[in-house]
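Notes, Module 5: Reading structure tokens.

Key idea: the token line is not a picture. It is a compressed description, and you learn to read it the same way you learned to read a sequence, by spotting repeated patterns. We will look at two proteins. The first is printed below with its tokens.
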Amino acid sequence: MKRIAGIILTFSIQIALGAQPGGTISGFVRDVLSAKPLTGVNVYLQNTAIGTATDDAGFYSIKNIPVGQYQICFDMIGYQRPPLKVIKIKPDDRLEVDMLLKVEAIHFDQSVTVTATRGHSLVTEVPASVNVVKLEEIESRNPQNLAEALQNVQGVYFKDYGGLGNTKTISLRGSSAEQVLVMLDGQRLNNPQNGQVDFASLAVEGVERIEVVRGGSSALYGSDAVGGVINIITKSSHNKEAPNRLSGSLKYTLGSFNSASFENEMTFRMPVGEFSGSYKFLESEGNFPYLDDYDKEQTRQNADVKSQDVYLKFTRPLGDSLYSRLLDL
């Protein structure tokens, strides 16, 4: 019995030494100008899962904080985040940290879209759900076609009929492919027979941005825009003061199945206008092994791809400086 009592006493001492009581941080968060309490402010310790939110009185309390050094954060939409404050927690510490927050305007993306209103409008003013895939995002993904450039956009689904070079049709929010209007610089691309567009055949070379409008737009574009609109905007400076010069880029890519692509873009600015163009060559064997229904390895035949895409555009300003218009050919 003495031996058992000694073991219990030893474990009790170890637990008492290892389980140090944590500390508590509390305080009030108010508006710096009106001094009114702010409700729903997120108060948390940086790089931890420890935090809480202020109540109706602007009060918060974080309990049982392990001993150590932390940075306390105060976050609320519409208010500027204050500099992080370093705090040290000791056993049984009770710290009071009050904070005043300053109102900060929310800055929205001021990208320009033309699809939803048939005129240049800020994306924040368009009465529809709009996504703009910018040039930087397209270049970072290095897509081989328009389907790959749009595959991560919310509400967009592609029906893929195979690998590289096979037909890919789009669906917006469950609509069929013929209910989505696809335009290139405002010109319709939908097939007049079936109303669909093969996105695997549309290269992204020369594209500046892609605008995706989800939801019915038939009032502006007709019955083929029940599901939404995809508008592809090509590159153009549209700047009369830009220097007259030739610029461009070259890109060569190698991949599996002996895949290779060569891409070329060119822009030439002249006093009378701007000429731009792009060319893409894509080639791939595409024959790959697979298991059939009987678990036997087969090789897919006739899956090779060879394509050439050429796009040319000429932009000329018309009229004087006050009433200028742009003619795209």
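Here is the second protein, with the sequence above and the tokens below, as before.
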Amino acid sequence: MKNKVVVTGGLGYIGSHTVVALLENGYEPIIIDNLENSSLEVINGIFKITGIKPSLHIIDCKVYIELETVIKNIEGICGIIHFAAYKSVNESIEKSYAYYENNILSLINVIKIADKYAIENIVFSSSCTVYGNPLEQPVTENMPFGEITNPYGKSKMMCEEILKDFYISSAKHKVISLRYFNPIGAHTTGLIGELPNGIPNNLLPYITKVASGKLAKLKVFGNDYNTKDGTCMRDFIHVCDLADAHISALNYANSKENKNYDVFNIGTGIPTSVLELITTFEKVNNIKIDYEFTKRRAGDIESIYAKTDKAAETLSWKSKRNISQSLKDAWNWELKNNKHD
């Protein structure tokens, strides 16, 4: 039985949690990571949680020959989960060229490898940013895209189109794009979690850094949106629920005889505002967050949340953990990992 799964970006935030889920579900992950936005220490956290230290190859997916050198010597690969990408909406506006080069070139190399070595299943790390400013909410997988406001979202949309064309031209592969909403939280053990470099671009690690005193004050970008409290609204999902979605997608792909291309929203379907996230964090962790409002941030949209019926019906997946659990786990991770700062 083929049970090996290549996980690009497997030491990253979502990738590492998915590696744990793969190990817990009988798969053998093969991690590929260039350590640009991750740390070798993550492999130790994975080992402490699972008792297994998975195979790790420190290479760059943008360099095809490096990727092929690893893949050509491994037998029994049933799929590739492709995480390796730059992921900051705000940063992508400042470094658009780097985002297009990294996110698209790495995917093309993964596709070439899958085609050459007959790896049937590809699960792609996409994003709700492909919906742009949504035309209606909750967003569904078949709705037309609105205006995409940043190069990160545009790169993910382009990657989905490339995968769709690849599936049509090859007809030998099962390809699934998972459109993530906003992952938060950490593994309940506090052994792996989000490790942003410098000042975090994502809201929750920014909150935890303020709560722990590493940053002085949280900046809330905009309080004049047309929402219930003036702040942006998002669909926040626990990272372990998101990891589980990859297992469901891989199991679904492995179980299907027919080749296909499909996309799924992976979220909770519950919109939460920035202020609600802050106040809930304060309540569940009994700590005060010092924050101030500042001007809107370029590339941010007002509100987005998912309709997840398709994932529930087709993949038999739905989120299990609530916001409070996510915020407790994120704070637990921060308290246990002061050494990373």
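Summary for the second protein:
- Residues 96-116 form the longest helix (21 residues).
- The domain at 4-184+236-267 is CATH 3.40.50.720 (Rossmann fold).
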